[in-house]
């Protein structure tokens, strides 16, 4: 008999050997090509088994597939009801979100009782540290006299979330200081499924809108041409809104100077041109998906990221904004964001994560 120790040695040895073999194979282009060929051959015909079946059996398998399509349509109904539930619960959350907004923008001063919060045990400070913190806090209070509400609440949330801070430019920050609330509105019953993100701003020097909107259309029906891929509602497209920029404040534009040579006379003159500038506010003018559904690579990448962001704001940020403000929610989300791939594949599946435990299958 082999002792346990030997066993381990053998396993390790086998692993090393396998690894070496793999490395050698991967370095040999012929083996690699052959491997690829076999993989390609396997796609769509997992085993060749289906082909080997008698005609009468294949015929019945088709009947099973038709049943499967019917299942997909029932599943679509399931997700419609989930959407209804979401709408119902959204109405229950809303008063709390409204109160949050009131506190943030200083429309309401919470009572002492409402402000009582037991710190986590690990956050428990020693007496000495407490004293020090108190002194510093008082000093800070003297410096910044009378802050209103929770200053820069949403801007801080944006800065704390990688997905959003990547879009954030320095020139966006003074504008986002005026952001007072983000609301999620669901489409009404009987309407095509969608949700709208509303960004509420206080009056500011940059644009005259008080609300900027971004609407995500969803598809909650199996695709006729590919019914088996259905796995719940998917984001199919989005529309932004027109921002009424105050003259000279359009941060999504920049002017550049260009030297232009006159062909005939050979004189050189400088012309100014306006070109798009990086900005979070480009979020409100996403690329349009043409009827054909064909997109160039750039637009596709922009949209894939956009769907990801829209989904994230709806699912995570709006429901738990304070935890993104304090930073408490950030670590949990690190491995939560799936990679964007191509748009037509990235149709995000907004409700999938939340309802996994109550999937009908
Ligand atoms: C364009 O972007 C640059 C760099 O992000 C920024 O410094 C500049 O202010 C922007 N231009 C306008 C007109 O906002
Ligand atoms: C602001 O810039 C965008 C391009 O980034 C343009 O489409 C829009 O018309 C501009 N708006 C104003 C009011 O200048």
UniProtKB/TrEMBL annotation:
Keyword Repeat: no
Region listing for Disordered, in residue ranges: 114-146, 332-361
Record-level GO cellular component terms: nucleus
SUPFAM superfamilies, A to Z: NAP-like
Compositional bias per record (Basic and acidic residues), positions renumbered to this chain: 127-146
Signal sequence region: 1-18
Acidic residues bias (residue ranges): 114-126
Superkingdom in the source lineage: Eukaryota
InterPro entries linked to this entry: NAP-like_sf, NAP_family
Protein name as annotated: Nucleosome assembly protein 1-like 1
Organism: Cyprinus carpio carpio
């Amino acid at each position: 008999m082999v002792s346990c120790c030997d066993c381990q040695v053998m396993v390790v040895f086998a692993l090393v050997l396998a690894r070496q073999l793999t490395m050698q194979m991967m370095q040999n282009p012929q083996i690699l090509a052959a491997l690829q060929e076999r993989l390609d051959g396997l796609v769509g015909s997992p085993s060749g088994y289906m082909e080997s079946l008698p005609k009468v059996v294949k015929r019945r398998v088709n009947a099973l597939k038709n049943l499967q399509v019917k299942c997909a349509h029932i599943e679509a109904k399931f997700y419609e009801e989930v959407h209804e539930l979401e709408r119902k619960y959204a109405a229950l959350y809303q008063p709390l979100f409204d109160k949050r907004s009131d506190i943030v923008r200083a429309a309401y001063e919470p009572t002492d009782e409402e402000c009582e919060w037991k710190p986590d045990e690990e956050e428990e400070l020693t007496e000495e540290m407490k004293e020090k913190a108190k002194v510093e806090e008082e000093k800070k209070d003297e410096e910044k006299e009378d802050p209103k509400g929770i200053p820069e609440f949403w801007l801080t949330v944006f800065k704390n979330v990688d997905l959003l801070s990547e879009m954030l430019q320095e020139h966006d920050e003074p504008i986002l200081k005026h952001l007072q609330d983000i609301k999620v509105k669901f489409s009404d019953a009987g309407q095509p499924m969608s949700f709208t993100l509303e960004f509420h701003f206080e009056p500011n020097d940059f644009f005259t809108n008080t609300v900027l909107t971004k609407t995500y259309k969803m598809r909650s029906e199996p695709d006729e041409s590919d019914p088996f891929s259905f796995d719940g509602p998917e984001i199919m497209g989005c529309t932004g809104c027109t921002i009424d920029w105050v003259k000279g404040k359009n941060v999504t534009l920049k002017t550049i100077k260009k030297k232009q040579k006159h062909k005939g006379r050979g004189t050189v003159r400088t012309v100014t041109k306006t070109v798009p500038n990086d900005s979070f506010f480009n979020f409100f003018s996403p690329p349009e998906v043409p009827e054909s559904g064909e997109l160039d690579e750039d637009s596709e990448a922009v949209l894939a990221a956009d769907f990801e962001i829209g989904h994230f704001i709806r699912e995570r940020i709006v429901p738990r904004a304070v935890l993104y403000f304090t930073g408490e929610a950030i670590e949990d989300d690190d491995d939560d964001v799936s990679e964007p791939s191509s748009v037509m594949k990235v149709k995000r599946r907004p409700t999938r994560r939340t309802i996994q435990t109550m999937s009908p299958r």
